Amino acid sequence: MDLSTALSRARRNFLDDWTLHAVAIASLVVAFLCLGATLFAVANLNRIAEKWGNTQQLSLYLKDGTEKADVSQLQFVLESLPEVAAVEYLTPAAAQKKFLEQTDAESDLASLPTEVFPASLEIKLTQGVPEGRLQKIIDRLQQLAPVQEVESYRGWFEHLASLLQASRWSASVLAALVAICVIAVIENTVRMAIAHRSDEIEVLKLCGATDGFVRMPFVIEGAIQGSVAALFSILLLLVAYAIVSGQVGYTFATLTGVSLTFFSPQIGLAVVIGGGAAGALGSLLSLRRYLSV
Amino acid sequence: MDLSTALSRARRNFLDDWTLHAVAIASLVVAFLCLGATLFAVANLNRIAEKWGNTQQLSLYLKDGTEKADVSQLQFVLESLPEVAAVEYLTPAAAQKKFLEQTDAESDLASLPTEVFPASLEIKLTQGVPEGRLQKIIDRLQQLAPVQEVESYRGWFEHLASLLQASRWSASVLAALVAICVIAVIENTVRMAIAHRSDEIEVLKLCGATDGFVRMPFVIEGAIQGSVAALFSILLLLVAYAIVSGQVGYTFATLTGVSLTFFSPQIGLAVVIGGGAAGALGSLLSLRRYLSV
Amino acid sequence: MTLARESTTRSVGRGSTSFFRQRERPDSSKHAKPILVMEEVYKYFRRDVPTLKNVNLKINRGEFVFVTGPSGAGKSTLLQLIYRKHTVDSGRILFSGRDVARLTKSSIPFLRRNLGVIFQDFKIISHWSTFENVAVALEILSIPKRLIRSRVAEALDRVGLAGRGNEHAGDLSGGEQQRVAIARAIVTEPALLLADEPTGNLDPGLSIDILTLFEEIHEAGTTVIFATHDHSLLQAAPHRLVMIDDGHVIEASQGLRAWAARTQSMVAS
Amino acid sequence: MTLARESTTRSVGRGSTSFFRQRERPDSSKHAKPILVMEEVYKYFRRDVPTLKNVNLKINRGEFVFVTGPSGAGKSTLLQLIYRKHTVDSGRILFSGRDVARLTKSSIPFLRRNLGVIFQDFKIISHWSTFENVAVALEILSIPKRLIRSRVAEALDRVGLAGRGNEHAGDLSGGEQQRVAIARAIVTEPALLLADEPTGNLDPGLSIDILTLFEEIHEAGTTVIFATHDHSLLQAAPHRLVMIDDGHVIEASQGLRAWAARTQSMVAS
Ligand SMILES: Nc1ncnc2c1ncn2[C@@H]1O[C@H](COP(=O)(O)OP(=O)(O)OP(=O)(O)O)[C@@H](O)[C@H]1O
Ligand SMILES: Nc1ncnc2c1ncn2[C@@H]1O[C@H](COP(=O)(O)OP(=O)(O)OP(=O)(O)O)[C@@H](O)[C@H]1O
Ligand SMILES: [Mg+2]
Ligand SMILES: [Mg+2]
Questions:
Q1: Tens digit of pLDDT for each residue in C231-247?
Q2: Which residues, judged by CB distance below 6 Å to any ligand atom, belong to the binding site of ligand 2?
Q3: Nearest by CB to B206, which of C112, C139, C142?
Q4: Using a 6 Å cutoff on CB, does residue C44 contact ligand 1?
Q5: Is residue C161 within 8 Å of residue C121, measured between CB atoms?
Q6: Contact A208 D123 (CB under 8 A)
Q7: Over the range D25-38, which residues count as b (16 or more CB within 10 Å of their CB) and which as e?
Q8: How many C-D residue pairs are in contact by the CB < 8 A criterion?
């Protein structure tokens, strides 16, 4: 069974009913667009999660009149804890500035006196500190002399984390669904092609063609369809991204603090290769199920 | 051409190659799932937009020591403007309370003296005030004696509005895409069915069957496939909604202030009927293109 | 020829059992006229060489006509022009006085409902049962299920396949499939029966049986055009004979026996 | 019978031009043995009635055997058992000494490469050209394109379709399609040629030509099994005759002429 014969037969089959293949590729492009869009969303969600996950933090509000030496000592102790990534000392003036930045309103609050903002230690935690451990640290810190209050932002982070988790979860479900869909479409297309050329297949078999000879062109067709559709849909996504990214990307960046990015070329290549593999696989499954003479 | 013959022939065709129809319905279910999810997203985005659109507002910060009578008069004048939906007077105490609620942190800011919060008039605008008109109103208000400053939150609203606009825009593009996809899938399926039973069609034609006689079963099949797929995908979405809504719905509600809702039964019915119509249409298109003896 | 003439006369009294025939041809005065007229018919499949040249043929209601000629002569093409699978390139074909070539696309089905065609390649649906293959011709006419059942059973009986209605048509032998095709053509009791090589897959005994069946149907008033290579059939039944040779249609009723005998002896040599 | 014996002897010197035949059967001592042996073969399509009963048949390398019998007798079934479209229900079929029924699925193709089969329903791909339909048999054997072209042209020439390779097979007449099927079967120069009603759509003159072609191929050493209804062919060529009747296979070489004459006279009456 030589490849050149198989290729030329695949080419002939393709030309014979190119509309079938065109429609199949179109369906696959839709499926891959879903997959691509999902990957895109997941990639950006991951970036958000990473960024926001990194900024998991505690604020340690200090009692008025705490001495500079006490603060330094406290900072040193905190920095030696394994869960702590960084500690920043915020003077009342700095706190006021940051507060005004965050409220983003040029309101009368600008006239608040600096003294109403307490000095604080902003503690960035390492990623993945377990809940119980965090609570313990907070309890311990609360008992320190210069500490007036510990702010852990936990309510907010729990909300955010659950939303991200749900998004990532539904994204991977969707990705799996799309993969199944691709295999199903290819399988169906090949099934159609088999039904369409059942007379040819019968003649081939009756003339002494081996199973490999009969199957090879279908597998080649499936692989080509899968990879062409994947490639095409990535290009479409890129175009759509280029068109939309300006406006949406800005809004996205200002809302999340993370700039929108397309997934990496490696992932794109993986999608194309995966598309070809899924095509060949769908083809083989279909042949196994529907091709018997 | 009587319907009962057509129905029984459609039934026979369906049983003859039910796998083809099953696969077609499966593809359609995927397509309708996309459509349903999109409708779901659009419905909820609309609710957010409505709610947030309704809360488009101005804050009129008053100079310290403005008399109660001046405030009342100002409030009366403002309420008579056609662009204004409601005006609320916020005393410094109320402003402080609201501020603390919004910052959502039990921080030291609670100890801010009430005086630092200026009294204000919170103006809710009607929906759809044009940009130019809004600017004029703001300029006019700025010149009034008791007004210290006008806060229009425009930067924030522009971001939000552009995000919503982009979402709605891409959602409707997706919906159109899905509709095309449904017609394409049905068309393709019918084309396959035609190719599959081209010998039967030839015999029918040669025995004197009218076009209607030949076509009717295909149209019925297309309509049934389309509506069954639509119905099935809505049921699937409902199940998914029931499973997910608890956790995600809570996060969504806390983030947006709008509770997650499923689209209305009317829209569901419209999708099913539309699915049937798209099926019949796809079928007819396919027949017109591929059925000729 | 004498036989054929006789049956033309006899055909006056036929058709009273078939509501279809009555519905389709209520005008009883028509049967005096020829059922099929071909005037200067040309058919080109290749630009320069016509497959049929200047064919003039008149077939009367109730006639039985053999069409013969070598492979590739144009016998099937002649029949295909009548049932509008192809259209003539020039000339005209009148069926019951109407020009077949000028029928609109939507009235072709009604032409075909007056014809029973046995195709050279059978055109049997192999994944249907024998019964379904025959019944389809009646379903098209919206005949009630009950009636379909009895008429299909009768037609299968006539071609020697009684009681085999439930068999998968694809599993039948070549000759059996051919007989299913015959049953489908005769079950509607058409006005004109076009048989393209209907005995090519049948043994001599069965061929004669089928020929006899066609003669019975013909006796009942149906016009039959019978394309065949089988010279023993031509010898067995003394009907009008039309030969297609090099695109020309030649009436061969006179020299029939001599010609057939010549071919026969040639074959036996 | 005498003729057949002679050609068996003559077949010693054949095959030197076909690399395929050489590759597949390098053992030259084999040709002394029978090429096909059927021993107590039964085939049931329906539970109670066997289509073939206790068939015992031995065909020597280089023989020419006619198979005949009424429609539905089991002629096609007999051939189908040989090329493993069906398997026997009991008994065994030895092709070149190997049991066909016990071939694994993956070695069936190699059995079929030694056979040339002309199917009763042609099995021509109507959307391929005539050339492609014939060439496919060689493509399967991975023969170089150049060689394919010349061998297909030669085969088409032998069946009287020279220069018509580019025509759409679906547009050919019934007889022309049948000849394409014949060309496809003979183009591989198989060891055994199974012809199922290969002249059903051909006129008497062409039938004789095709029979002559088969006899030529037979002269060159190929074993031929020729199933037919056409009694004039049986008369024209005095080969071994096997009849299938009621499932039984009967050697009819002795009474052939008498029987054929009887049928002929019956048909002519
Ligand atoms: N649709 C077509 N397109 C092109 N050529 C055609 C078409 N149909 C028939 N022909 C050619 O016209 C000629 C006559 O064909 P036709 O089928 O009428 O022959 P026939 O007399 O029925 O032969 P046979 O006895 O072999 O069936 C043949 O050479 C055939 O190739
Ligand atoms: N695959 C099958 N399934 C069931 N029955 C079959 C199958 N193939 C053949 N038969 C039956 O077996 C009998 C013999 O068929 P076969 O095709 O061998 O006949 P034949 O001698 O070739 O007849 P013909 O001359 O009509 O071609 C027939 O009655 C047929 O219906
Ligand atoms: Mg013909
Ligand atoms: Mg047979």
A1: 888 888 889 999 998 88
A2: C 171-176, 201; D 45, 51, 69, 71-77, 120
A3: C112
A4: no
A5: no
A6: no
A7: eeeeeebeebbbbb
A8: 122
Pairing of strands D98-99, D90-95: antiparallel
Substitution target in D71, D241, D262, D263 with the highest count of C β-carbons within 10 Å is D71
Tell me, what's the pLDDT at A91? 82
Is residue B159 situated within a structural domain? no
| Residue range of the domain that includes C168 | 123-189
- A277-286: buried (b, 16+ CB within 10 Å) or exposed (e) per residue? ebbbbbbbbb
Instruction: State the ligand closest to the CA atom of C203.
Output: 2
One pLDDT digit (tens) per residue for chain D, 269 residues: 333 333 333 333 333 333 333 334 444 444 457 999 999 999 999 888 899 999 999 999 999 999 999 999 999 999 999 999 999 999 999 999 999 989 998 899 999 999 999 999 999 999 899 999 999 999 999 899 999 999 999 999 999 999 999 999 999 999 999 999 999 999 999 999 999 999 988 988 889 999 999 999 999 999 999 999 888 888 888 899 999 988 899 887 655 555 655 655 555 55
Within this chain, do residues A147 and A171 fall inside the same structural domain, yes or no?
A: no
A41-88: pLDDT as tens digits: 777 777 776 666 555 677 788 887 778 888 888 888 888 888 787 888
Report yes or no on C229 lying in a domain.
no
Chain D positions in Cβ-Cβ contact with residue C172 (cut-off 8 Å): 72
Report which bound ligand comes closest to the CA of C168: 2
Question: Which ligand gives the minimal distance to the CA of C78?
Answer: 1
Higher pLDDT pick, B289 / C218: C218
Judged by DSSP in three states, C191 sits in coil
Domain CATH number, residue B77? 3.30.70.3040
Last residue of some domain: A128, A152, A176?
A152
For residue C122, the distance in angstroms to the closest alpha carbon of chain D comes to 10
C201 within 8 A of D200, measured Cβ to Cβ: yes
User: Choosing among A23, A142, A182, A194, which should be mutated to test the B contact, i.e. which has the most B CBs within 10 A?
Assistant: A23
- How many whole angstroms from C176 Cα to the centroid of ligand 2? 8
Q: Would you say the CB of residue D176 lies under 6 angstroms from ligand 1?
A: yes
* Cβ–Cβ gap D119/A206 under 8 Å: yes
**Is D121:D85 a contact under the CB 8 Å cutoff?**
no
Predicted ipTM of the assembly? 0.75
d(CA B284, CA C266): 57
Task: Answer whether B207 sits within 8 Å of C83, measured CB to CB.
Answer: no
For residue B175, is it within any domain? yes
DSSP code string of B134-149: HHHHHHHHHTSTTEEE
Residue B80 sits in the same domain as residue B210: no
Nearest to C142 among B2, B16, B203 (CB): B2
Count of domains observed in chain C: 1
Contact B200 C109 (CB under 8 A): no
Between β-strands A57-62 and A147-151, what pairing exists: parallel, antiparallel or unpaired?
Answer: antiparallel
Structural domain for A65, as ranges: 56-152
Among C82, C160, C162, which Cα is nearest to C115's? C82
Q: Are residues B192 and B253 in the same domain?
A: yes
Helix axes B18-54, B211-256, angle to 10 degrees: 40
The predicted model scores a pTM of 0.75
The pLDDT-based confidence of C157 (bands split at 50, 70, 90) is very high
Please tell me if the CB atom of residue D180 comes closer than 6 angstroms to any atom of ligand 1: no
Chain D residue with the nearest C-alpha to that of A12: D128
